[in-house]
Design goal:
Order of helices and strands: HHHHH
Distance between the termini: 31 Å
Largest sheet: none
Number of strands: 0
Number of helices: 5
Helix content: over 70%
Length: about 110
């Protein structure tokens, strides 16, 4: 357990927003970085899912549960080899992640950007 604390780093919501912007911003992500972006988006969504269900004392709202369920199949999808399909998956992950972030901030599960 002590090892988990040593490698733990606090949630950096700004990094999440940078990845969201890369996926759903005005320009599609470059092909060479799409694979890495997909990996980060998956980790981000998984992390937020864990926060959502971590404390039985504070059960998730119906909307949070819906978003976790909506994102679950996206976490299981294999990264597409075709660039356009990979960008599509990145955008779907980003939209679910953005919505979940909004719900978690509103519910005070996490802090927004100060």
């Amino acid at each position: 357990m002590l090892e988990r604390f040593r490698v733990w780093k606090p949630l950096d919501i700004e990094e999440f927003f940078d990845d969201l912007d890369a996926a759903i911003g005005s320009q599609p992500p470059p092909a060479v970085t799409t694979g890495a972006l997909l990996g980060r988006l998956r980790r981000n969504l998984k992390h937020l899912n864990d926060i959502t269900v971590a404390d039985d004392s504070f059960p998730p709202t119906a909307e949070m549960t819906r978003l976790v369920e909506r994102g679950a199949p996206l976490l299981e999808e294999h990264p597409p080899a075709v660039y356009r399909q990979a960008v599509g998956l990145a955008r779907r992950l980003a939209f679910v992640t953005a919505d979940l972030i909004e719900e978690l901030i509103e519910g005070r599960y996490i802090k927004g950007i100060e």
